[in-house]
Specification:
A seven-stranded mixed β-sheet has the order 1-2-7-6-5-3-4, covered by helices on one side. The radius of gyration is 15 Å and the shape is globular. The longest helix has 13 residues, at 152-164. The protein has helices spanning 13-18, 37-46, 57-65, 152-164; strands spanning 24-26, 52-55, 70-86, 92-103, 112-118, 124-129, 134-137. The chain starts with 12 loop residues before the first helix and ends with a helix. A hairpin with a 5-residue loop joins β5 and β6 (124-129). The protein is α/β, with parallel strands linked by helices and 165 residues long.
């Protein structure tokens, strides 16, 4: 039920806001998130203005925009059947993952709450902002690993957009 407009990662925040979106979806992508300074700056300007949902690289970029740091994993998380604990419900979700970096828990600002944890190595697998309608996960809920375990995240994001419309 959503109309999606795809914009380049280099698009400035004011140009994105001119499109009058109901929310911002930060998609997945390859590599080290820290050098993507242009996107981190844009995300920092958008947070608090619109609901934000980030996955994989988008999760890392949202965390960086909030002041956290990232680090390179020794081996990375690759493939399906990656167990993640939803700390808010206690449910274990089977996820698909493909990343080599993670958010550094020691660097988390007070505004970010850990919502999901990777059960293989205890790294952060999900975050929620305390004050703003923003959430993110380190995995790929669109990949439908398992019995659609993470599909609810898209409903949560849609609900955030409807609440703030």
């Amino acid at each position: 039920g959503c109309r999606v407009s795809v914009v380049p990662g280099t698009m400035p925040a004011d140009a994105i806001l001119e499109l009058e979106p109901d929310g911002i979806f930060l998609s997945n992508g390859p590599g080290d998130p820290e050098p993507v300074a242009y996107a981190i700056r844009t995300i920092a300007q958008l947070l608090g203005q619109l609901p934000v949902f980030g996955i994989c690289l988008g999760h890392q970029l949202m965390a960086l925009a909030c002041g956290a740091k990232t680090f390179k994993l020794k081996f990375g998380h690759r493939g399906a059947n990656q167990p993640v604990l939803n700390l808010e419900t206690g449910a274990v979700e089977i996820t698909a993952q493909n990343h080599g970096f993670a958010v550094d828990e020691a660097s988390l600002p007070d505004d970010l709450v850990i919502t999901h944890r990777n059960l293989n190595d205890q790294t952060i697998a999900g975050l929620r902002h305390r004050r703003w309608p923003a959430l993110s996960v380190q995995y790929h809920p669109e990949a439908s690993a398992g019995p659609h375990d993470s599909r609810y995240l898209f409903r949560q994001f849609r609900d955030l957009m409807q609440k703030t419309a």
